[in-house]
Write a structure and sequence with these properties.
This protein is flat. The protein has a seven-stranded mixed beta sheet, with helices on both faces. It has a five-stranded parallel beta sheet with strand order 2-1-3-4-5, sandwiched between helices. Strands 9-8-10 form a three-stranded antiparallel beta sheet. The protein has four domains: 219 residues, Serine Threonine Protein Phosphatase 5, Tetratricopeptide repeat (Alpha Horseshoe); 192 residues, 3-Layer(aba) Sandwich (Rossmann fold); 135 residues, Response regulator (Rossmann fold); 63 residues. Helix 23 links the parallel strand 11 and strand 12. The protein is 53% helix and 13% strand. The protein is built from 28 helices and 15 strands.
């Protein structure tokens, strides 16, 4: 929280309007601007001298009050809180009409806070909240008030300030904090009495949410439980792939809970988990969900992992109205079980829709070709991609599926080249034979050709490719001008000539080993297009092996872990607890558990509330992927990645818009 207050101090509003009733003094302006540059560069000692020079130039100049407040802020930045306070007081007393009074009061309050004068700081921030015209000053003063009351004021001080405060927002905040302390001390009845009194008065959204969260805890109890249902195979000694995936996901759930508990603040719910083993048995999975639903101990279920047991568990959860969120399932039928069932991993059909929408709306593509494997998930992606392209007004001009194990795709790419060439047919005007040369010359001039060019081609009886001159409107212009033309398909057999009539080639592949086959054939047949792939293309080893052909390929993937402080801290925490590197599957559990903790802390503490909150989730920032569940309760976020110059980078995260 101290980092928050440091950030608040850095976010003071900028110096904008200046006084117009005092003398403009050019040297004062120059010293002031110099001081601002030095302040921005954190050269605080020299900045102080520049601001003082601006003040000394002329008793009252157009930069006087600006220089005073910047002098105060510079002392504050140097942690000289006494002088900073004195300069704030100077501004408040001598220049009561200054436009920087808000900044002075806020800075004065921050000085009190950093000097340990918490009651004085609270009073200053309350004044800012009540009088500030600038939105940022109001927001920052409220956060400061909240922090001071929670961390530094005694219960007696909170009660005393609540009794005398003239500000409704402050009074309501203090009463809710008092109720939280009563509940934390074990006096739920007293907390309920305070809530009953203040709840009808609260209109502020942030306070209402906090009040609702506390109310749910008072009525339900402090600890909320989430069931984790995975094929842990506890009765087996065999180290199977299924068992390892389940163990990794469970450890991800555990580390999310540990992270939350280590940073838990006052007013936040206490969350626990119950672990259940499906034994990789659909009947057992269904029975466990039935038992959880009847016991009422858990508000939601995470899991299972594999399709058959997930379908069985989802069916039981839907029948009982028990929220169930699968971290891994990609079968479209899972979420269709009912309104309480969710999929945090996007399905094959949703991925196809997202990529089609990205291609049309972001890349601006209009014509598409599809070359896809006939394995089930690739087929679903290809079909949904094609349907979405048509829905958005695009055109699929070529669509072929190759069989599993088919290694020679030359015929399919040859057919694609031919289809693309047919689209790019060109129009030729022939000047052979008898013709009214004067009439043709007149028409050619109207089309923009020079007389010398027209005379030359007529004299030689040449054929002219007017598409090269007139572009896509060649046929239309030739017809309107009465020029004799014919349609011709060129470059079909000559691979040295590129075809570029297809904007995007979409290629869902069965595995990363097919990257080289597809990319090399597109290059060999000289098809100039954007290659758009699926998550199977997200393989740096195969891409790098085929970098000559794959450079520039774009693909969608549900996995992208940023190399940032958050991911590094998570990996370190996981390694410290479990004494092993964090596996990728652990992120499935981490992201879903983090989402549920977020939902619970927003006040959704019953099963109905959790299901409703999950269905409204938009761009929850997971580590592996962001999560949006508004579209059919299936995650519709997908990372758009590109392989370029030997590395994979993220272009954006795209959310499907139905």
């Amino acid at each position: 929280m101290k980092r928050l207050l440091t950030a608040l101090a850095a976010l003071w509003s900028t110096l904008a309007a200046q006084e117009t009733f005092v003398t403009y003094v050019r040297p004062a302006e120059e010293y002031f601007l110099l001081g601002m540059r030095q302040y921005a560069a954190r050269e605080y000692a020299t900045a102080l001298r520049s601001f003082q020079a601006s003040l000394d130039i002329y008793p009252l100049n157009h930069r006087t009050t600006a220089a005073v407040i910047m002098t105060a802020k510079t002392h504050f930045a140097m942690k000289e809180f006494g002088p900073a306070s004195a300069w704030c007081d100077t501004l408040l007393l001598r220049y009561p009409d200054s436009e920087y009074l808000e900044d002075a009061r806020f800075t004065r309050g921050m000085c009190d806070y950093n000097s340990g004068r918490y009651a004085a700081a609270f009073g200053a921030m309350e004044h800012v909240l009540a009088t500030a015209a600038q939105r940022l000053n109001r927001e920052h003063s409220y956060k400061a008030l909240e922090h001071i009351a929670e961390e530094f004021l005694t219960t007696a001080e909170v009660d005393s300030l609540a009794a005398v405060s003239a500000n409704d927002t402050v009074r309501h905040l203090l009463r809710i904090i008092a109720a939280e302390r009563l509940y934390s001390a074990g006096d739920a009845d007293a907390a309920r009495t305070v809530l009953d009194a203040v709840e009808p008065l609260v209109t502020e959204p942030a306070l209402h949410q906090r009040l609702r969260r506390l109310r749910a805890r008072v009525e339900r109890g402090n600890r909320i439980t989430v069931a984790v249902l995975l094929p842990l195979m506890n009765g087996s000694a065999a180290e199977t792939r299924e068992r390892k995936v389940a163990a990794d996901i469970l450890d991800g759930v555990r580390i999310a809970l540990q992270e939350y508990e280590e940073g838990q603040e006052a007013g936040e719910v206490s969350v626990g988990i119950e672990e259940f083993d499906t034994g990789r048995d659909p009947r057992r999975a269904r029975a466990v969900v039935d038992s959880i639903a009847q016991s009422g101990t858990s508000v939601a279920v995470i899991g299972p992992v594999f399709s058959d047991e997930t379908m069985a568990a989802a069916s039981a959860a839907a029948a009982a109205g028990l929220p169930l969120i699968s971290p891994t399932a990609t079968d479209d039928s899972v979420a269709m079980a009912g309104p309480a069932v969710f999929q945090a991993n996007s399905t094959s059909s949703v991925r196809g829709k997202v990529l089609a929408q990205y291609a049309v709306k972001v890349l601006g593509a209009e014509r598409f070709a599809i070359i896809a494997s006939d394995v089930p998930f690739a087929t679903v992606q290809a079909d949904s991609f094609a349907a979405e392209v048509v829905r958005l007004g695009g055109e699929v001009v070529f669509d072929q599926r190759y069989q599993r194990g088919e290694s020679d795709l030359r015929g399919r790419f040859r057919a694609l080249r031919t289809a693309a060439a047919q689209i790019a047919a060109e129009y030729v005007v022939s000047f052979k034979g008898k013709m009214n040369r004067a009439h043709i010359a007149e028409r050619m001039a109207a089309a923009g050709f020079t007389p010398s060019f027209t005379d030359s081609v007529i004299a030689r009886g040449a054929a002219v490719n007017i598409t090269a001159f007139l572009g896509p409107r060649a046929k239309e212009l030739a017809e309107s001008l009465g020029l004799p033309f014919r349609r011709t398909v060129v470059h079909t057999d000559s691979l040295t000539m590129p075809v570029a009539a297809v904007d995007v080639v979409f290629s869902p592949i069965a595995s990363a080993q097919q990257i080289g086959v597809v990319a090399s054939q597109i290059a060999y047949y000289n098809i100039r297009t954007v290659v758009l792939g699926t998550s199977e293309w997200n393989n740096i080893h195969e891409l790098d092996l085929n970098r000559r052909y794959a450079d520039g390929v774009i693909f969608g993937s549900e996995r992208w872990v940023e190399r940032d402080e958050r991911a590094a801290a998570l990996a370190a925490r996981f390694s410290q607890r479990f004494n092993r590197p964090m596996p990728d599957d652990a992120l499935f559990g981490y992201d879903v558990m983090s989402l549920l903790i977020h939902v619970l802390n927003d006040g959704a503490l019953t099963r109905e509330q959790v299901a409703s909150a999950l269905s409204e989730t938009v761009r929850f920032p997971g580590v592996r992927n962001s999560i949006t569940l508004r579209y059919r309760r299936v995650n519709s976020d997908l990372h758009i990645l590109q392989f370029k110059n030997g590395s994979i980078t993220k272009l954006q995260t795209y959310t499907y818009q139905p």
